[in-house]
What we know:
Layout lengths: L8 E2 L2 E2 H9 L15 E3 L5 E3 L1 E2 L2 H4 L3 E2 L2 E6 L2 E4 L11 H5 L4 E2 L1 H7 L3 H8 L2 E4 L20
Parallel strand pairs: 5-10, 7-9
Antiparallel strand pairs: 1-2, 3-4, 6-7, 7-8, 8-10
Organism: Trichogramma brassicae
GO molecular function: heme binding; metal ion binding
Pfam family, one: Cyt-b5
Amino acid sequence: MELSTLSLNFGSLNLLELWKNRSGATATGNNGNVGATDEKSTTSGAPEQLEIIALDQVAWHDTLEDCWLVICDYVYDCTEFLRSHPGGQDVLLEYAGRDATLAFVGYGHSKGAKRILKKYLIGELPLEERIFRTENGIKVGDFD
């Protein structure tokens, strides 16, 4: 399936086009491995499996002392970043415990912001709860 045939429209907001235009990201796959789990690199460079975290678990982390966000089906613990967020902590708290993808992509964060976000990556949603990254490996984009 070509990525161009994948449509991710929310009202008048086309996430695929917005994502490509803002970050220069391209679609990538997992080489056809259905259900493959994404990996992140540890400081030693060895890949590490991401923990699978369901949305109902993310929902419990919605306070100033415990703030988790979902962005493009990845789960981030942004608690430490709340007070230093350039837009203020209230912006993050508005989406604490839920999916913040539309807000994050819609604002057009820089590549630097995406690099900072990687520090807070703690897991990913299970396949059945993903919207932006599917089991066939099609992705809207990656954080570069």
